[in-house]
Amino acid sequence: MNLNNIEKVCINLSTVRNNIPLIQCITNYVTINDCANILLAYGASPAMCEAYDEVFDFTKISSALYINVGTLTKEQEEAAVLASISAKVNNTTVVLDPVACGAIPRKAAVINRILELGRVDIIKGNIGEIKFLAGEASAVRGVDSLDSGEGALDACIRLAKKYNCIVASTGKEDFVTDGTRSAIIQNGTEMLTKITGAGCMLGALCGATAAYSEDKFIAAVTAILSMNLAGEEAYETVKVPGSFKVKLIDCIYTLTEEKLKKEGKIIWQ
């Protein structure tokens, strides 16, 4: 069957819900509950396993591993590296979220260890983080990107080729590439920047969509489009951050293939 890209995205969503992938998350303490809840709402099974003595074996039985370095404790650091090694040994999909890597040198050092010793299938970050990892000058403030987005896709392509992985960059427009194919996703709402955890929740969703997908490029597009469309729908009825965050989870839960197909605004390259 010769499917177009948006049809593949729709199938990806159904695959998650039909298979309930187990997503191991080593993530930051600010948003750990948000990541767990959005995975449940999407149809996946979250496991927030970060104990050093457990991660190697747990990664072995997981469908995908999500590593977020936002609030990196020493145990998380060693656990993340060990889990990524287990993922390499056991062929487990890995999503890396390089939070604040451009602001804190230690985070960059840990990311380099993960990339050198383990496995990474998708790098998902804001444009400041992606440009930093690609070796370019980037404007950041803590965990936030101040970058205008100019040259974002080129930076993503360079990073994807450097590490032979999928790179997804978020901002006013979202970019996904495998170094050859690219997608520019134009859905979304500014309200996603007014709540804590939108980026972390998206990273967790990337783990869910990539878990049973051989095409990690389509998987990353599915996760971002899902988050953006849910955000748009939530903002239609809720205009303030606290209630918006609750409504976002609801809209992820009720998201359909039809909505992805009809409302997705994607430029495929």
Automatic annotation (TrEMBL):
Pathway: Cofactor biosynthesis; thiamine diphosphate biosynthesis; 4-methyl-5-(2-phosphoethyl)-thiazole from 5-(2-hydroxyethyl)-4-methylthiazole: step 1/1. Substrate binds at residues 48, 197. It holds the Pfam family HK. It catalyses: 5-(2-hydroxyethyl)-4-methylthiazole + ATP = 4-methyl-5-(2-phosphooxyethyl)-thiazole + ADP + H(+). Its cofactor is Mg(2+). GO terms for biological process: thiamine biosynthetic process; thiamine diphosphate biosynthetic process. Its EC number is 2.7.1.50. ATP binds at residues 124, 170. It is an enzyme of class 2 (transferase). SUPFAM superfamilies: Ribokinase-like. One of its GO terms (molecular function) is magnesium ion binding. Keywords: ATP-binding, Kinase, Magnesium, Metal-binding, Nucleotide-binding, Thiamine biosynthesis, Transferase. Belongs to the Thz kinase family. HAMAP family: Thz_kinase. This is Hydroxyethylthiazole kinase. It comes from Clostridium magnum DSM 2767. The gene is thiM_1.
